[in-house]
Amino acid sequence: MPKAGRSTSSSLPSPAPSWSDSTLPFQTLLASTGSFGNTYVPPATPLTTQSSADRSPGAIEGDSLDAVHRAGAHVPECTHLGQAKPSTLQRYRTLVKYSLFQKYQHRFLAGFQANQRDCAPPKGVRLQKLEAKRDAILARIPTPQCATCRRSFGQLLVCLHCDFTGCWSNGHLRAHQKANKHYLAVELGTLAVYCARCRDYVYSHPWEAMLRQERLRIYHRLCQLAEPRTRRLPLAECLAPETNNHDSTGADGALPGPCDGIRGLRNLGSTCFMNVVLQAFVHNPLLRAHFLSDPHSANRCTREACIACQMDQLYGQVFSGETTPYGPSGFLRAMWQSSTELAGYAQQDAHEFFITALNQIHMGLCGDDHTFNCPCAVHQTFAGQLQSTVTCLSCGHQAVANDPLLDVSLDLRPHTKRTRAEPLAASDDGPHSLLDCLHRFTAAESLDAQGYMCGSCGSACQAATKQLLFKSLPPVLSFQLKRFEHHSSASKIETFIRVPSELDMSPFTTRRAAGGNPRNAESASPSPPHPACHYQLFAVINHEGTLETGHYTMFARHRKQWFRFDDHLVTLASLSDVLQAKA
Amino acid sequence: MAQDAVADRVKVAVEQRLVESGEKERLQEILRAHLIESGWKDHVKAQCRDIIRARGAANSSVEQLMREVAPDARANIPENVKRTLLTRLKTYLMENIQDLDATPPSQP
Ligand SMILES: [Zn+2]
Ligand SMILES: [Zn+2]
Ligand SMILES: [Zn+2]
Ligand SMILES: [Zn+2]
Ligand SMILES: [Zn+2]
Ligand SMILES: [Zn+2]
Ligand SMILES: [Zn+2]
Predict the structure, then answer these.
(1) How far is CA A537 from CA A129, A249, A283, A499, A500, in A?
(2) What is the pLDDT of residue A529?
(3) For residue A179, pLDDT beyond 50
(4) What domain of life is recorded for the organism (chain B) (predicted)?
(5) N or C: which end of chain A has fewer CB within 10 A?
């Protein structure tokens, strides 16, 4: 079951500078900042595919890579943060400490008072002394207010170049920045950094790492105050991984850890069929962009056994920076609960799981049954349309119908039915490549004599052909090679099928085929593939072994590098490994 | 004119009192919870996303986005959320207003 994603990489910059992707500021700006400790947004993987995710599906016409270019790939990133002096970062740290303390000072107070009741102050310290100390701290913490209008409500930002505090709503901060050519400022509530030169909230890895450290530090102190007798990890240990990470990437600052987004999945007892599909989801650039940037909010979700919530969790786990294998037991449990078909299905077929999971994710995101033009991540990623045309050979009448598709199942059996207008001189031992399969899939096929009643000439036609073509292509195309046969006795077709690393789908679309045989059009204009029909392989799922004792593994591309996933084992792979595998 | 100046000073003093006492943080927490619960936050977020999507991320600025979204967002705050917050604010001010009246801001 190979999958191909629309090729965009040729036009996109390398994934490294994705930190200041402009989709992020808004997200964090509007994200709930209430529960600190949870607000750390995992560093986004290249969100550069976002632009193609945002397009309406199936726009074959009038849609080019240039549009993708403009839509988001070349958003200028803020270089001002990186060029800022170390003292500016130091000032940011001071402000972060100040703001966090200011924000939680009353919780500190409450914890302090609560503790007086049930635990004595440390030996040798008089209570008054502690209180005096606390009051002194509080007195040193001034209430922030706009230097111009004295407001202390609303968004207040502190200049990072001087001591000015200004409000956003009356424009006093912007006025100050303009007058003094000061451009970096911190918003006190969210601690986001605003760059006036970029006119946007901006990010950089060292700054984010520092913010996270300070948040952890104060969270630790709050916990310590509230429950002084609870044993917990020393703070240094909580901070350690982040510090290491920061050091190792210190020089260029913006590079996320190399293993980010790569995590093996534990086998929970014959669950390799699930693990391979989950890895394919994780490495699907569009689904990933969706779930990392616009998480299905699990706290608002009331669905029981919601697969969308599980997806959210899966991405969180894979991008947590943790490298030990993860056991997706929640996913499995939710799938058993929500899908009766799967529970009764003993075969544990990856494709079956794939389709069920897609439907369940859609249900979790949308909560309804309608799937046509559905805005959910699943349908925006996988939904396309097939057009089937039945032509009556007696009167020439054509009956056209459109069918939605989420994936394409390709037949591997040698032809049994006689076909007309066979575009390839197909060998009778079946197809040998994905292209063969697609040519067969879209070839006009003669219908059974009694299978079709012509709507125009009314007679049961003796001769009619049926042809399937892609009316609209989804951003991510998923193919299933039907290796399993469940007819009289279950068996597996072992033919090796060549899968290309890049695929041009234009010969199989209605657009290319319009006005005649696709072959004619092909020979008439050997134009380069239309960008919207150009796909790049990013994941291949393989079934190894026999039907009964088989094992699923998969290959996935991650930042231009191929990896082989075998449950908890993750190894490097080359493109040739991938193409030689028997998908 | 002078009336306005006094009103402004009282407003500033009240705001400061709310912040210093931690009441603002508590009110904000309540507001945040209500807005998330009622779906207001998701709605505003979706609105922002749609605007950015339509215009392209490169052509979007925070200021512009806030200008466009704020009126609608403000109007869409559920009535019961407003009422809850107002009641709480009133109660707080009733309990704390006396000494505020007694000591009017001294600075000119
Ligand atoms: Zn900047
Ligand atoms: Zn102001
Ligand atoms: Zn300044
Ligand atoms: Zn859910
Ligand atoms: Zn859907
Ligand atoms: Zn829907
Ligand atoms: Zn007919």
Answers:
(1) 68, 30, 11, 9, 8
(2) 63
(3) yes
(4) Eukaryota
(5) C
**Cβ partners under 8 Å of residue A246, min gap 6:** A205, A206, A209
- Percent of chain A with pLDDT strictly greater than 90: 16
CB contact under 8 A, A151 and B15: yes
DSSP letter, residue A233:
-
CA distance A509 to A491: 32
Under 8 Å CB-to-CB from A517, ≥6 apart: which residues? A421, A423
Give me the pLDDT at residue A289, please. 86
Q: Which residues pair with A400 in a beta bridge?
A: A389
Segment A475-532, tens digit of pLDDT: 899 999 888 876 666 678 888 888 888 888 888 988 765 544 444 444 444 456 677 7
- By Cβ distance, the residue of B15, B41, B62 closest to A152 is B15
User: How crowded is residue B91: how many other Cβ atoms within 10 Å of its Cβ?
Assistant: 10
* Residues of A annotated catalytic, as ranges: 272, 551
Min Cα separation A294/chain B (Å): 9
The first and second tokens of residue A214, run together, are 């300070």
Per-residue pLDDT tens over the stretch A222-262 = 777 766 666 666 666 555 544 333 333 333 333 344 456 78
pLDDT at A497: 86
State the SS3 of chain B: CHHHHHHHHHHHHHHHHHHHHCHHHHHHHHHHHHHHHCCHHHHHHHHHHHHHHHHCHHHCCHHHHHHHHHHHHHHCCCHHHHHHHHHHHHHHHHHHHHHHHHCCCCCC
Cβ-Cβ contacts under 8 Å, A105 against chain B: 22
